[in-house]
Amino acid sequence: MFTVYVASEEELRAKLVGAVKNIPGAVLDGSSTELRQALDECAAENPGVLLIDDILLTQNVGLYEQIARVPYPVVVLASPTDAGAARRALAIKAKDFVSLDAWTQDLASILSRTATPLEGEVHRDGRVIVVFSSKGGVGKTTLSVNLGIALAKASRQPVAIVDLDIQFGDVAPMVGDAPMVTLYDLVKGSSRVDQDTVKRALKRVANNVYVLAAPNNPEEADDIRADHIVQILQLLRETHGYVIVDTAPGYTDINVAAFDFSDMILTVCTPDVVTLRTVGQALQVFYDGFHYTQDKVRIVLNRSGSKTGVETTDIAHVLQSQISYQLPSDGAYPVRAANEGAPLISQFPDSALSRAIQHMAVELVQETEGRQRAVSKKSSKIPFLARLMRKPQ
Ligand SMILES: Nc1ncnc2c1ncn2[C@@H]1O[C@H](COP(=O)(O)OP(=O)(O)OP(=O)(O)O)[C@@H](O)[C@H]1O
Ligand SMILES: [Mg+2]
Fold first, then answer.
1. How far is the CA of 378 from the centre of ligand 2 (A)?
2. Fold observed for domain 2-117+378-389
3. One fold for both 2-117+378-389 and 127-369?
4. Which of 142, 267, 301, 345 to mutate to test the pocket of ligand 1 (most atoms within 8 A of CB)?
5. What integer best gives the mean pLDDT of the chain?
6. Domain ranges of the chain
7. Whose CA is nearest to atom 15 of ligand 1?
8. Cα distance between the two ends of the chain
9. Global pTM value
10. Tell me, which fold does domain 127-369 have in CATH?
């Protein structure tokens, strides 16, 4: 998998963006009609490849030196008959060239071989982590979204967050984005889901983080079946290092499909007697009914340390399980971040909860991958000037 940023004049930009979205393994990182803006955004995102329309180069001579120094590969889209195009491509140290008169055929192969794959490209099936609780309002979605972002950062691998709270899911508003495509759009009228459709439904919400949103209307949830979920999770784990699944309370067919498929179920509880009672019952179903191990079902104590009169040691005793992760109360920060339509970890990275979730992500990554991670190597680049200089047939 690799990301692509497109910098092009308006008319061509829309076509290029559409084409990039159809390239297998490619994910659109962003696009702009302003070269300076493109470079600023790429400085933050470090795309797998930046595709620049030569027209923008002719208008921004002053930026050549800056482009020549960028750490990611740059590909130029230019007319093969324009003699100046080769000079400009050389000046910006472009890695490859797409001919304007044949770009619809050539774009996919040239970008695929030029782009740097996402760092830590997934060489194994990604880890599927379900975030569950028997109780509402305990912090499942807050944990799902922020753990997803923290895992992408800690693992440097793409992460997918799937909103399986299919009636009232709120992952999308929590990341500030009204989704265009949802789980419902993905499955309606079809029993099979393929990699390309899943890819198109994903919404990029942060660096290396993609959301598959819940349906926009509760009645659309009826069309989503357990076998859809299994297919979607399988497809997502092939292209993402981690797949986080936010859920609604309950043992619905869909939840059970996700539980069975997952590598880990983070069961969220809070330090109050009512929640503890239901979480205790849920754990019994997991251990005794489904025969999951304590390694698979892990307890996350959210709002730990709150002065509720229920101590952490009492909770572990009542649940007869150790508490794997403790997340502190974070005052108004989570609500403020949600009201601002931004994930807590992006908005308040130093808040107590953000730091605890980042710590949790690092632990999970170390557990999954060990401390040694493979670093992807850039593929060797082919000389392109000959093609650029070639006269059209
Ligand atoms: N550690 C925390 N400190 C302070 N506020 C928190 C904390 N965790 C969650 N919250 C707040 O609690 C509320 C419920 O959180 P969230 O929506 O994540 O729970 P949920 O379990 O997904 O709820 P639902 O069952 O409705 O989907 C939100 O307003 C959130 O900002
Ligand atoms: Mg929720």
1. 40
2. Rossmann fold (3.40.50)
3. yes
4. 142
5. 89
6. 2-117+378-389, 127-369
7. 139
8. 34
9. 0.70
10. Rossmann fold (3.40.50)
